[in-house]
Amino acid sequence: MTSSKQMEVWDPHFHLWDVSENSLSGHDSSQLFAPKGNPVYSWDLYEQDMLEAGSGFEHSGGAFVEAVSVCHVGKTGDGFAAACLAETNWVSKQLDNSNKCYIIVSSASLEDYNAGKILAQRAENTLVRGIRQIMNYEPSWPRNEQLGDLLCNPKWRKGYAELKNHSLSYDLQLNPHQFRDAVRLVEKHPDIPVIIGHLGSPTLDDLTAKKDDYWNGLKAFSEQEKTYIKISMLSYIDKNWEQNSLVQETVLRVIDLFGIDRCFFGSNFPVENHFGWNADRLYKAFVSLVDRQYKKEDQRKLFAENAKKAYRTETIQL
Prior knowledge:
Elements: E1 7-14, E2 17-18, E3 40-41, H1 43-51, E4 57-65, H2 77-95, E5 101-106, H3 115-123, E6 128-132, H4 144-147, H5 154-161, E7 169-172, H6 179-188, E8 194-196, H7 204-207, H8 211-222, E9 227-231, H9 245-258, E10 263-265, H10 271-274, H11 279-290, H12 296-310
Parallel strand pairs: 1-4, 4-5, 5-6, 6-7, 7-8, 8-9, 9-10
Antiparallel strand pairs: 2-3
Helix pairs in contact: 6-8
């Protein structure tokens, strides 16, 4: 139970994985690291990491976000679909060990000819609330060198439309130069909730030399009623972002643009932890971004309440 002096943290973006030699989790040691030298980043290790935020925070659960869409470069079709399903099944068993409130953002290749059937299979798992398939292209995340810009792929767009039939949201991770095509897709399917990952993956260049493209794109996203945005992976902009005033200005402008009810902080563990951001450092820095600008009621929305609504946790039975 969260006390009146504690800030509830419902973390909308964390990963678990197993990159051990005989892993059955669908993960790939050639793309994922072993956190702190441990090839299995399990539910209990994640919860231990979150405890480092300190006694001012109460971690109540969160959204596991898939990691397999960076794995198995070159593998497609049934073989890759099996890896996606293996991850979901492995994570489900992991989360069953905890008494906290968790949901799953699974993965699927929406360009697959069988996308509708694959999504129906994911939706059978009561913890699965949404799908993520990393879209970042040029610069491309591992699988997308081969797959290309999926936003321009008619087969992928057809698969995206299937999300509505299974009441699934979409976690959208992409580069700012892809915003325009993504907004057109979101406009065409307004009933599919969209959660933009990591502020839209901007680099310092996107926030300076290319800032007009970035902000015009985010403004268009913000006009879509069912579109939310995660404040996470800020180390992608600057590894010491807490010392960078541009990052603080960006976060506050994003919150102003989307409104206090459609933004939320995410840990991105174990990735941020790997780059020197333990929970103590991370959550102190998050608080410092908003402590003077927003009252506690609004801060509670940013740290837990908004994300729980976006991922529909009210239907989870603990």
